[in-house]
Amino acid sequence: MSLVFPQQQRGRVPEEVNPACLPDTPSDPKITSAASGEAHRGSGHEWSGVMAPRVVWVLVALSGVLNVRSCWAYTCPTICRCSTDTIQCSRDTQLASRAAATSVLRLRLTHLSLKEVPSHAFKELINITIIEISQSDCITQIRRQAFLSLHSLAQISLQNINSLRIIEKGAFTDLPKLEYLSISNTGMIHFPDFTTISSLVPNIILEMADNMRIDSIPANSFQGITEEYVDMNLVRNGFKEIQSHAFNGTKLNTLILRDNTFLSIIQEDAFKGASGPNSLDVSSTALISLPPKGLRQVRFLRADSAFALKSLPPLESLAELLEAELTYPSHCCAFHTWRRKQRENALKNFTKLCDLSKTEMEPTADGVNDFNDINFQYPDLELDCLNDPFVKCTPNPDAFNPCEDLLGFRFLRCLTWIITVFAVTGNLAVLVILLISHHKLTISRFLMCNLAFADLCMGLYLMLIAFMDHHSRHKYYNHATEWQTGPGCGIAGFLTVFSSELSVYTLTVISLERWHTITNAMHVNKRLRMHHVTAMMAAGWGFSLLVALLPLVGVSSYSKVSICLPMDIDTLGSQVYVVAVLILNVVAFLVVCYCYICIYLSVHNPEHSSRHGDTKIAKRMAVLIFTDFICMAPISFFAISAALRMPLITVSHSKILLILFYPINSLCNPFLYTIFTRAFRKDVCRLLSRCGFCHTKSDFYRSQILASHLTRKQKVSPSKPHSLSFYSYIKRKGCFLNKGTT
């Protein structure tokens, strides 16, 4: 039961002081009544007597408009004695007020004009169970022993006192029945002292909220508050750090730290010397990590909207966890992975699985079933986990983020490294040889350099994926969020999309250039010049950069899946982007096929008795088209179906396609277009000869070139180019396929 005081005495505004924080002494009711009667008798005779109250009210209204704090008026409880600068609510004032005062249970103080709550302000009050001080913007500090030896006091509430800066040490002393303490919306700059409260109740609730100037919780802040359990609700404060031993000497039941948006550090030993907490809430904080010590008794963990919390502590430190509400789906995979490790240890050491852990996750798609189905092949080894509690964890892993390593399958890990080595070394070798050779930079060499650079970017993408997979092996859940939302995945995604689009574009330009050159071999004025091809490739670079940058600015996203491809189709713009890119790649493949078919028809010589040359050309074209087809067809088919929200395979299985087929062009292009050509071998020998190697081979190639020029001069007259057949002409000009790289 709590009672509110009856109508109480009100003060008046002193004539000589600013009404902000200096009210005068509350007046005696008798004096006030007499003064009112005198004023009434003279009101009909003096005009000034009528205007004086109006002036006062006008001034009061103006002070409110000017945002002057309303400390000029307050209520003084009947059991207290008030003055302009102090308040005394003690046993003596309580007994002096009237006999019924001892039945009052609640003391509510609002709009106090005091600058401080003095020591012994509430000394030995009788039967008071609740003290509330609120909306008193003049109070700057609470003195030591202000709340002293109040043996009936159960609740203290200090709220909406924005000017309050300091609560002195020992302000709360000897309060054996205190069960609720709230300090909210103050201007305190230091964490208050609770060490002398000494409450004896079985459970005390401590609430601190909206104290934005307190930036840390120091060591031993709660030691001495009670020897029993404490529920702490510390929300929406300015905390940036919780120091070591902050909760020393406490029995924590619930610790709520939510909405402390600046809280980024909880020191490793913050819970050292404390028991609990059983429930921990760090939602909507800036925490980067949770302490690895002191969380073993946590049974309920809530960390939603904690976007900076990208990794969990070792799961052994959360051994009793039953329920978790986290921010990222990958964190829920942690419990499944840990449970699987416990199972493996149990199988290895022939020990009971139930003795190792009390947590369990439901089986996932990778085939991990209930552990009761394990056949230990030992009849005397009993395994009973039916009563073990599950870890209820949200958000659940979705189709885009299954509980598996980055590459998922072991054979993919090996293939990725093999493809990476060949793609990087092959394309790097092509770039080096073509750029440092002394030959003039022809159109073919220029295009091959662009193709090699594009495919090298794909190799670098695979290298990033392979390194990240190796680094996070068996613990990807603890790296998934940091990887997928960090710069690493963004760089990897940019590299792969840029590489893919530039490679496809360059292959299309190469096919078009060769088709145009061969079909117009007899027309010198129709040949492409270097500036034409340079402009085409500049457009290709711009297009590839644009396509690769769009997911970084919100059109789709590289962070949707672990392999950093733009698989986000949640919005219409993202869906249009993904489908458009895939369709453009299919169109480019069809253009390449068309160009090579036209090339074959152009060089086909039906009058030639031997078809060996045509067969060789057809084989080369078949290899080029086949590599493009096996690279593009499966990826495009399954990707377009997924982009249209009709997925035919899971993300786990799509990784097989992406590793086996997606980089095929980057792996094969340097060999098919450059390394396997005679011109490239000549360039390599010449480069090695300058370094002191392969002199004999280099001389042989040099003599071959000289002999070829002499033979051409003898067989062909410059005045009769029309005597050459079309087939022999383009062969002599060296503008077909692999020979075009010379």
Automatic annotation (TrEMBL):
Polar residues bias locations: 1-10
Pfam families (UniProt xref): 7tm_1, LRR_5
Residue ranges crossing the lipid bilayer per the database entry: 415-436, 448-468, 491-512, 533-556, 576-601, 622-644, 656-676
Span of domain G-protein coupled receptors family 1 profile: 426-673
Localization: Cell membrane
Top-level taxon of origin: Eukaryota
A cellular component annotation (GO) from this entry: plasma membrane
An annotated Gene Ontology molecular function: G protein-coupled peptide receptor activity
Membrane topology designation: Multi-pass membrane protein
GO biological process: adenylate cyclase-activating G protein-coupled receptor signaling pathway; hormone-mediated signaling pathway; male gonad development; ovarian follicle development; ovulation cycle process; phospholipase C-activating G protein-coupled receptor signaling pathway
Keywords for the protein's UniProt record, in alphabetical order: Cell membrane, Disulfide bond, G-protein coupled receptor, Leucine-rich repeat, Membrane, Receptor, Repeat, Transducer, Transmembrane, Transmembrane helix
Residues covered by region (Disordered): 1-45
InterPro entries, sorted: GPCR_Rhodpsn, GPCR_Rhodpsn_7TM, Gphrmn_rcpt_fam, LRR_5, LRR_dom_sf, LSH_rcpt
Function of the protein: Receptor for lutropin-choriogonadotropic hormone. The activity of this receptor is mediated by G proteins which activate adenylate cyclase.
Family: Belongs to the G-protein coupled receptor 1 family. FSH/LSH/TSH subfamily.
Protein's recorded name: Lutropin-choriogonadotropic hormone receptor
Source species of the chain: Scomber scombrus
Lineage, highest ranks first: Eukaryota, Metazoa, Chordata, Craniata, Vertebrata
GN (gene name): LHCGR
